[in-house]
What does this fold into?
Amino acid sequence: MFEKATLIAKLVGYSVVLIWGEISHAFNAFLVRRRAQWFGATPAADRTRNIVIVGASFAGYHVARLVARSLPPKSPCRVVVVEPNSHFHFTWVLPRFCVVKGHENKAFIPYGGYVAGAPDGAIRWVMGRATGVTRRAVTVEGGEDIPYDMLVIATGSKVKEGLPSRVNCTDRNEGMERMRSMQDGVAAAQTIVVVGGGAAGVELATDAKALYPEKKITLIHSRSAVMHRFGKILQVAAKEGLEKLGVEVVLEDRVVAEDAVGKVNCTGQKPASDLAGVLSPNAISATGHVRVKDTLQIRDDEISNVYACGDVAESGAPNPNARVAMRQAMIVAQNILQVVRGEGPTHTYETSWADGVIKLTLGLDRSVVYTGDGTRELMFGSKEKEVTLMAASAWSRMGQKPYDDDYQGPEPQATGEGKVNMQ
It folds into this structure.
């Protein structure tokens, strides 16, 4: 009991620090807005120093928010975000919405609201894919070269097969079509094999079995326990949750590709570090991550103005997630703002056990929240009242009214992507 109380106290302290950081940023952004109103702001045409951010998921979007809303109104600097997706992908709900129909639009949050309140001209949004980079500029598809004074690489991770971990397309409408295709595949199948016992695999398998109890669902994992990156009590709870619903769990085994009929692949996330590799090949680790210093600058002494954060960075975080990405984003933003003021980057990132807090769903109406500091573990069970999980709160946090989106976009193409080959 004493150990649990100690862990709770440490978690509360961690939360207080994060909340205080949010309050401090909000107050500073308020002051910046007031100064812009009273004294005006540097027009966009006169902002000649670019802070280019490649990628606007949890890490890059947060850097953009913190920097753009904190730049002095008369600054010659502006934030330039290069992002190929039409919408922010709220990846946490993808496994659920690949099973449950009618909510796929809620996984795609319109961009813009999260950076609202920045001085006029302080941010430019470029919807396109970065195709090249030098030590002076980023090239965007179509051929535009965007020069930079500072560069943030926040390209995240990628999955070859896409859903249910990543959408693997840039347009919201096409992404929704891919999710509907997977939903239809799950609904039509009699037998489903889920490969991978991490969070995505466990959540998809339990959701599918809870919604379709008559189906035969098997989860295959190559390790000795599901959720093997976490502590023992979560491993046990996840396996018990699977088996309670009737999911067959096969451990320490693999699916051979040519025998993988009826398979949903929930494995294979890799850092999307191709762009960083062009800029600094020696900064790429054996795992494909970008090596970084404590300041989250790329570990290349010849490039002091380039940072990396989020899933793409080799930061020492044991279980990279959105919380880790946003904590790293704050460090990068603080260092960039120091440089803007003519100082050197001094803020450093240190891993914290509390970054590994995870909420894992075990069916449509049940979840557990787990944390551990390496010697102590803590887990709470809860009932889920909303099938859409935390989608509405994510929209609100991103500055958007749930689920208000008038996006039209191109007509979805019948690519067949996202279909699940099942029996």
